[in-house]
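@channel sequence for tomorrow's demo:
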Amino acid sequence: MPYLVIAGIIVITLLFFKSATGKGILGELDVRVVLGSNKEKKNKYVVNNLTFFDGKKSVQIDHILINPQGIHVIETKNYAGRIYGREQDEEWTQVLAYGKVKNKFYNPVRQNAGHIYALKQVLNLDYNYYSYVVFTKKAELKVSSTNTLVLPSYLLRRNINKRATDKVLKSEEVVFIYNKLLDLKKGNTITKREHVRSINERIARRNNEKN
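structure tokens (generated this afternoon):
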């Protein structure tokens, strides 16, 4: 009997991580590993999965890294296949099965720009904000004409480190921002269901504007 229970748990776990939710979690875990943990000596702090209300809508940010260079805001996408898009496009395209399957999704550069705008409004802090759109290893990026960094997860740390000479924040400022983000996270009252409903309402509005 225990073997059947264990086998059942394994099957359920495998099915979960093949689902959209499971794949999203795996993608975020990939980036969490790349970002690493908080390191006070290196003056680097990470906040994962921050959800808040900006006064008009709910906002969910996958990862934020705060260091002496500024505030690094990271949107994670765990998509396979070829990814096509430009910064000015409203939607990007995921191509699978040798071109037989094409899926549209909202431009993640625009999405993360909206996240940063909302974050500025609630924090009311005028520091350097950097945007990153990170795809996991399964994606083949065919993205062009973007000022925002769109890159695979294994290149994220390297690109953050490139900014090491641009120190604009003092140690106490880094800690201050980190604590403000923690307070924002602790004060969140938005459930996952409410956030999903908010996203679906925005998608419906965008679709209506097209028509």
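heads up for whoever presents: The chain has one domain: 2-210.
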